[in-house]
Amino acid sequence: MNDVVPSVGFGTLAMLLVVMSVSVWLGTQAQKAVEKGGFIKGYFLGNRGLGAWALALTATVQSGGTFMGFPSLVYTHGWIVALWIASYMVVPITGFAVLGKRFAQLSRRTGAITVPDLFDSRFGDQRVGLVASIFIMAFMSFLMIAQFKAGAIVMKLAWPGTGVLALADDATADGIDRAYFLGLAIFSLTVVGYTLIGGFLASVWTDMFQSVLMAFGVAILFFMVVPLASQQGMDSPTLAAVAATGPGYAFGPGWSPEGTAPFLLLGTAISFFFVWPIGGIGSPASMVRVMACKDNATMRRSIVLLSVYNVLIYIPLIVICICGRALMPSVGSPDEIIPRLAIWSTREWTGGSLISGLILSAPFGAVMATVSTYLVVIASGVVRDIYQRFLRPRAHDAEIRRVSHVVMIVFGLIGVVANIHPVDFLQKLVVFSTTSTASTFVAPALMLAFWRRATAAGAIAGMLAGAATILALFSCAPLLENKRFFDPYALFGLDPIIWGLAVSAVVSVSVSLVTSPPPAALISRLFDDPRTEPHRPAPEAIH
Amino acid sequence: MLLETQLAFQYPLTMMSVDRSKPDHDEVRARGEKTLVRAAGREAALALSIWLVAMLYTVIYCYLNGYGRSVESLTFVWWFPDWVFWGIVLPWGICVLLSTVFALAVMGGESLGEEIDADPAASVRADGEVRHE
Hints:
B: two-stranded antiparallel sheet, 6% strand
């Protein structure tokens, strides 16, 4: 009944400009904070000063997808998507309580600034750090490049008169045209610019800003949309949606258009309890943020804050999108459901365009924050783990600063060039990279933190085995099931992440057990009371 | 004696002014760090147990009650189909409470320790010493 295509007003563009301006301002504020301490630790780790809000709202897996891909899934498949996302109920506790405290402690005790730094120091072997660094840079580059496309498309579609309205990062919107290129240029300049200015803190603060925007957006939408859809009772949105689709909309495995595969079979449902919580543990971007947290109390408060935040974001979003199906039963592109609801429900309000702009700026902010985060992780990998470690160990702050800026600009340019002709399977690369990251790092990271017997060879073997398993399962799907390249092969109905984690764990442990134990003194330094360790002169600091 | 020699070597200024009747700041910190390793292991195990229980309950409940049903059998709790409420919304709420109790009452408040400035060019010898290249 409300399927008229809404038009995009100037309010949306105005709000995007506000978001960009605030982000640049946050970048300049971050720069001031960075200059209070040493450059490396300030620029890549925020001087280990992250507070509870910053840690909670930025350290796990909120991203552009929260406000873009996820609503589209609910609108399309119905209530079963609640089960798909249900593991977020434990993401705060697994994200911080499994590795957080030990990573924060070990990174202080070793002076590690980056994740490869920590691997290197814990295993006493630079090859572990190098392997970790290469994998992080490879996976993060895929993730970052895909986000450039999303940012450019949001910019393009926010421009009044472009005629289409889609926020999905996989939506080509029928047009890689001048507006797209303009959007790509503006987006890239903004995000690379403020990240370059403020480094890690700039990415954290903009991430926090978009999380707050997202919370406002969900709250406004909930109170505008749900009462409209529930005028005949709280069950009426679901019944109307079922009438518009089919009975599967209210049950598992979910409603799917004819000819498409069931959405969530049992094996996939189990798999997603691994993908989100365990994937969160294994994300290098998350690891580096717990390394940057201020203290233990901060981490504890973050668990509470994130638990409350997640439940207030995801449950209402599901209800909103079910109501969206009842109010707008046949939206051509499901990715448009949130912007359509936002614009439609504020159409008669004074300043409604600005309110819908506020709602729509949330995913844009999320995309910017995601790119910024990956840019910092990649730059720290190149500068700290390769340039400073292997090429110029005695480089001074000014040189490191210059190289960091050059690396960010180069990777920003790579992001732009890769998106001049964006490939169709880029979104699949994102899934592949996320799954690979978890499979590569979770088992070695757990061993790093808790197992004294773990060896450098075990950690390297675990990383290689996890990554190789994922690569094999993603590669053989086209051969065995005639799927497209980078579609995963679900062995026994389970997502590749489960096989990757299992193989990585078995190989890490086995290789550790058959290789020589790590040096007792090294392990004692990292696991035992520092007062009982043999005297060790303080390492020379670099400034 | 050995320990005291080490302490004097590592913390000479502290040793000169320390009141031996009370544990000094470094000793408290050191105990905290030692406790942290054990506590972090326990907390990680507990967190993973909560994850496992949540997964088993949610997936099994939803599979048994939310798959292959007829619309006629559907009842609602607020906006939610019955299986969504009892299988997802309720355990989600319980997890929020559990996480809060875990964070505020179970997780220890140990010191994370003091930081050293690491040299990226340094590698660690077999005896645990840091070698600068």
